[in-house]
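During the first year of the project, the team set up a workflow for recording each protein of interest as an amino acid sequence followed immediately by a discrete structure-token representation. This format lets reviewers and collaborators read both layers of information side by side without switching files. As required by the reporting guidelines, we include two representative entries from the current panel. The first entry is reproduced here exactly as it appears in our internal archive.
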Amino acid sequence: MEKKQGKIVPFISVVVPLFNEEGNVARLHQKIVLACNKLQKPYEILFINDGSKDKTLEEAKKLSPLTLIEFRRNFGQTAAFDAGFKHAKGEIIVTMDGDLQNDPSDIPLLLEKMEKEGYDVVSGWRHKRKDSISKKIFSRGANLLRKILLHDEIHDSGCSLKAYKRECFEHLDLYGEMHRFIPALLEIQGFRVGEVKVSHHPRTQGVTKYNWKRGLKGFVDMISIWFWNRYSHRPVHIFGGIGILLMMIGKILLLWMIIEKLFFGAQLSEKIWPLMGIFLIMIGVQFFIFGLLSDIVTKIYYKNHERMNYSIKEIIEK
């Protein structure tokens, strides 16, 4: 059991965002404590109160052991997870929702999968979901779109019950609704991602926080991750490519207008195509310049963060 400055360093950190979960918070804490005690390893529990309007904060303050992080207002589940990750001290970070639909007794399943098969991330798979039909349909649609854009092999990336090795978050900052895409983000960086079937319970207290607005934000974040995956290292490839294509189309239009004028005596003043050709060339030049500037900004980003566009797992010297 490792100690640091007289304190026991936890092996497991359980991170849970809370928003208006006054009816669930005490029972959830009890279940987490019971599950972690069975592991017989040092642990910590982090609850992030994401600007709850009910008595969630008051109920959480009664609980122990607990690290309670309180936001000044509601910043969203992704921000709450990010704050939890940055304050967690454990070698393994386990996440889950605060609505008791995830079962803390499944934590050993995640850890066993991680230890036996060498995964860096293990995601829960709610193979028998206890949600409404509309929520299931929306989730399956999102999963299909995610597989197409991100080539993510996880069946249920939206399940918050996950286990991560601590090094997964050394260079990862979360924004928007990106928490559900963490496995895809980490897989892009070269981490091994697996999954295991877990139980799922119907919500008995409080109301769901998911709606069409969160779904729309999640879709936008998915496109952002797709772009980052494909072009973050060399954005000039997409913007410069679009610029060159537009310039070529513009030049072809102008060349055709010149041919019509010289060989067919066409009156170009009556046609819009010469102006369209010039317009496409100008837009193409702007796209190309934007691509070059984006390339410069990307290089500055990696240099300032003292990192490159790759992730080294280990270095072996003999």
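The second entry, processed by the same pipeline in the following quarter, appears below.
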Amino acid sequence: MFILNQQNSIATHFVAELRDVHLQKDRIRFRKNLERLGEIMAYEISKEMTYTSHVVETPFQELPIPLIQVQPVVVAVLRAAIPFFQGVLNFFDQADCGFIGAFRKEHDADDRIEIELGYSGAPSLEGKEVILVDPMLATGKSFVTSIDELMSNGRPTKIHFLSVIASPEGVSFISNHVDCPFKIWTCALDDHLNEFSYIVPGLGDAGDLAFGPKL
């Protein structure tokens, strides 16, 4: 597992602004900070990919340069992931993309939370590394449900679960329910989930803060 804020970097400023209730009202700033963090995390993930030497012709001579062997497939969990996903795509600009519409379906009787899929569209994942992007890793159920759905498009060689903020419960759920090679990447690992399964201290509802509240 990679946790970005375990080292000092400018990224902690962007995370702090995402959390700050006084700054969250500025939606364009909120979306821009998600995009910035997507770029930073894409750079970190790129360090672990497989590279092959390619010869580039400069004005003076040919030069071998290591380039990514196979581009990943980047998948966004709609709708909250869109700005974060765009940041990832700014760096993996040759990657194919997929989209999953996953949302919580709450049961008033016992407060159970299930994930319902409203949309799924992705290219072949066979033999590819997949970056699954969702800013909040709360229960982990949307990540696991999304991967279960995506497996019908082929088995990836590795899955990178990418979030801005994660909970210990969500990390544990993924670890116990995903049976192919994976790594969890997050900007911050928070304390716990509250009784409504929201991350504490967290930042609230990332989708509503980025795009406005939904009915």
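For the second entry, the following points were noted during internal review. The first helix runs from residue 11 to 19. Residues 71 and 95 are 5 Å apart (CA to CA). Both points are flagged for discussion at the upcoming steering committee meeting.
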